[in-house]
Amino acid sequence: MSPLSIEYFVMVAQHGSISRAALELGIEQSTITRHIGKLETDVGVRLFHRSGRGVLLTDAGRAFLGRARNVVNALSEARDMASELAGSGPRKIVIAAQPTIAHQAFGRIAQDVAERYPAAKLRFLEGLGHQLMNWLVSGEVDFALLYVPTQAHVVDFDELLREPLHCIAPKGFPLPDGPMDVRSLLGLPMVLPSTQHGLRGLMLALSQQEGIPLQLAIECDASVSVTKSLVQAGHGCSILPLAAVARERDAGLLTTRPIDDPRMLRTIAIATARNRPMMEANWEIRQIIRGVGVDLVDSGAWPGAQLIAP
Predict the structure, then answer these.
(1) Are the C-beta atoms of residues 224 and 148 closer than 8 Å to each other?
(2) Which helix (H) or strand (E) holds 261?
(3) CATH number 1.10.10.10 given to 3-85
(4) Whose C-alpha in 55, 88, 154, 204 is 20 to 30 A from the C-alpha of 114?
(5) pTM of the predicted model, to two decimals?
(6) How far is CA 255 from CA 193, 226, 239, 248, 250, in A?
(7) 257 bridge partner residues
(8) Sign (positive or negative) of CA dihedral 156, 149, 228, 264
């Protein structure tokens, strides 16, 4: 059973198409077809249903996929280690971040990491906090930039900066002058995610601590941009870091107020998984990411952020 055939199998399963997998890998479709056929012969079962619209995993194929992914991850780690031992640095670097953080930092991180490791293939992912945690544990990403969750026993954190949350409201909405307190915030109709993590979880905790029911106007599990659009259209208020809304505030599209409460201060950290071996360049890549954070805060390009000394 060829490891290469297993890698091709996983790629085809992910894309649902031999042609798309071939395009991604830069090889001929016939090469992948030959390897998949050999793999099916070796395992003794059919792994894909084939049709004119692509391929679908059979029941046996779905069962085989989990183990195949483990093999592919192990091969990738072995190749990365071999590359590092050869002195050329990591072969691939995967960095994930939550949306606002990704928007602020990915451009500069890409520039600085590419300068240090020009031979490395750099990949960025964007997701919610619980998705990033899962990706770290499964080995899909090497580093994650995220708001530190309350339960984080499966990952290690290197705190980078703190970011206060602001109340955002439609233009002309009657917010109090100056910083708001939490009790005033809880009296507003809110646009928040449905998940109990992140911003929704924070507001629920404040509601319980203050004994004030949460006023939920709309549940929104879409991007930060959609949340801002709903607020701008007058459907309610929300809470977001200043960096996420500075442009709309300056353009007069949204009203913002700081919230005078230490509970509204979130910590952004560089996270790595505890159950995965560290790449040789772990420390140096962390320093590159930290340096980007320092530069963005010092230059004012990350409004509202406060650096945490290493």
Answers:
(1) no
(2) none
(3) yes
(4) 154
(5) 0.68
(6) 20, 16, 11, 8, 9
(7) 167
(8) negative
